């Protein structure tokens, strides 16, 4: 059956543009500024100019931040119900004007009207409804948290309005005020949204919208008045933002690129999988960060599946995005078209087979046909780079383990699809894929109740769901932290006394602890440790880069710890506590000698209690089962981060060590720990405790030495998944954040402030466990 033309009228959208003289200023403090330096917004489908927008300046960003800062106390004081009413009004108005928004989005972005009308706009309204509910429940459900403050938000051009709702709705619900920058190419629906904000009764200054190019984003990122940044865009820009914000104390969430696998097993419904693949890679012209751009199909059905896929590609329609019968619209800009064409040409040059259906390409605008590439190696540019266009790269596999290996053969980790009629196989494979979202027998499903976000170089943080709300909240206990670490003063160090008592009365240097064994440091150097009175106590090994490398290797070999049951992990923590208690007096004496503490017994007892505390949490930090508006469920799993590098505090050397290591291993992580640089012996004395507590080799690895040098190595090591630093060094914490940008690993740093390690409010609870875990949402449809 052939579809006839079904064009959508642009009359109302064009009238709205004319109403504004096709020229827009900035939206700050509920007022429109006079237009300044202008740049054009064009229709990608025909290159026709739609309107002129204002290029914001640094002073404009200053005004927007000032307006947001002035409005924030009042917006928060309005209370959850007051904010919920405004957000409900926004949702209702978005529905009322849904067709206008949809047409304007299609004109500005180039995506098909079917997508903006049937996918984007319903989800936009859903986000405001859903988060209005969180605003209403905030005082009850997030009683121990407060709003972050002023939030800077920067979004890309592929889902302009939907990204706006993903960012603004949770920020508003939590009581924050916003400085929002839409993408330079696609700002028009943000301008219309600004009008809707006024109609909904939004107080002045709560939402401020500044338009322009990357200079505006840079001004927001670097502005000292911004408390939290939320960015969606390329991994390259995400790295720059991580470096720019290092040491600033700004909260940061990054939703970045992807190279998502689409795995088809031989027992899958192949026709359904083909349709899912069409929705996965050719939806929005493939300009989707989670697009299923890597097809992995089981070898036994590869030829059959690719034949079905080529036949389906031949039926895809490409043309005017405003025509309801079109499947594929225009690319956002000629620059994007040129980049995609260059990558496809590189695949041809490497000997790959490139299949493109015969379709008429419009003379004007930015277009690219649906494309299938076969025969690429796993290292080919098209197999590794995010193409961000309607290009699919297909490979085969033989066994499920090989499928997982190929799926994880990327620096990204945003999303994945698994197609099989064997639910046992699907639920076995899904947790093994390093991605924040896994769709089973479906693709590109989104809902406000279900978190979305990536692993590895796809960024960190989540959008949507309860976990998305936490991105815009700060634990109130953080406000009570000491201004600086409280460390006991030490006397001047004294030289080691001569050995006495016979030939065997010599000092013994504490070794490193790697892979469950004591090991001499690679450099064969040691450092002296002195007590509170300056007297020499012992020496410890001086760890270096190679020691860290060995420890990371041992930690990865202990990957079975992540698969151990939570009950088993809890038992091991209880055993550690039991064995520590048996040697409590010895540990108290060591702490007293090192630090001069008058309450060393208290620290040992608190450490035992902290081990019990996280043993209790180990089998209780469960995920959630969501029921989104689809026929199925979404299971949000709390997964371990992987291998975490930890730099411990100098104050409370035993309790600080336990308070950081225990939550990490309770949730299945493995750790490489740098104990207190000043007082490391509390950690080195734990070796025998670990050995007698059934802790598997490699789960905890301890490297003594310089906190700065070792933290630097941890932050730059590509096989470390996260780094925590809590030794009170402002410069050192900033360096960890800056260096982590290389692989975009997660960080948790204390900055120059101290922490009350005896307080579970500051050193325990879900806030700490959230740093030790990452949420994976697995979508499981059922029935028809």
TrEMBL record:
Residues 37-476, 528-747 form the Aldehyde dehydrogenase domain. One of its GO terms (molecular function) is aldehyde dehydrogenase [NAD(P)+] activity. It comes from the Bacteria. The keyword S-adenosyl-L-methionine does not apply. InterPro entries: Ald_DH/histidinol_DH, Ald_DH_C, Ald_DH_CS_GLU, Ald_DH_N, Aldehyde_DH, Aldehyde_DH_dom. The active site is at 255. Gene3D superfamilies: Aldehyde Dehydrogenase, Chain A, domain 1, Aldehyde Dehydrogenase, Chain A, domain 2. Keywords: Oxidoreductase. Coiled coil: none annotated. It holds the Pfam family Aldedh. Belongs to the aldehyde dehydrogenase family. This is Aldehyde dehydrogenase family protein. It comes from Rugamonas rivuli. The lineage of its organism: Bacteria, Pseudomonadati, Pseudomonadota, Betaproteobacteria, Burkholderiales.
